Amino acid sequence: MDLLKENLACKMGITIEQLREGYGHVYTVEFGLIKIAHSYEQLAI
Q: Which domain holds residue 38?
């Protein structure tokens, strides 16, 4: 699952540490997908 986070961080142009610190409260990893909370919906990346 860290590979998913590393890929997302790379696409965002940040480090995995920056992803955890800045965005760790808005995403979850479920069934091999990273889901970002957005208002009342969740968007799968």
A: 2-44
